[in-house]
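Entry for the shared binder. Reason: the reviewer on the internal report wants the predicted structure included alongside the sequence.
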Amino acid sequence: MSAAPNRDRQAERREATRREIVDAAWEIARRDGLAAVTLREVAAMIGMRSPSLYSHFDSKNAIYDAMFGQAWTVFLAKMEVDLPRLPDTPREALLAMLEDFFDFAVVDLARYQLMNQRSIPGFVPSETAYAPSVEVMRQFTAFMQRAGVIEQVDLDLFLAVASGLIDMQLANDPGGDRWRRQLPRVIDMFADDIGLPGPSLRRTP
């Protein structure tokens, strides 16, 4: 019988504390905005003195870094579940994929801003935190190529249009679906422009 591996309880406690700090930072960001996250506010929320935070994160940007990596890791896990379930036809697959990302984005403004906008002056994610976003783009590009979207300029256009619709939804109709309803039309316009086959997705004239 092999002995059970020794648990590093100190490391487990340290990781649990880091998660608690990051969770508190998200709570502040969602309530008051990303810029409102401060070491003092985070420490107060979890009942810790501010200097004690430095044993876990050496700066506020280090907390943002952990938040950034966590957000993209969550989306990567979602993407890996969703991609195999997409329809086989290119237009329907593009629409389903865009709807999935749109819904993920608009449900959490602070998370979307940190993931996709330069909303924190001076913050640049570390290579480790950035890695899941790189993997998301790798899988997204491979999916788009399988759907028939090959050229980089077309991928760029798709991302720009998707981001613009998300920004409009968050800024002008939070909690609604005004710009989400445009997604079938946008996919048709995009597919027609680059010559993807398939029937129209538009549900209304």
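Summary line for the report: The CA atoms of residues 26 and 67 lie 7 Å apart.
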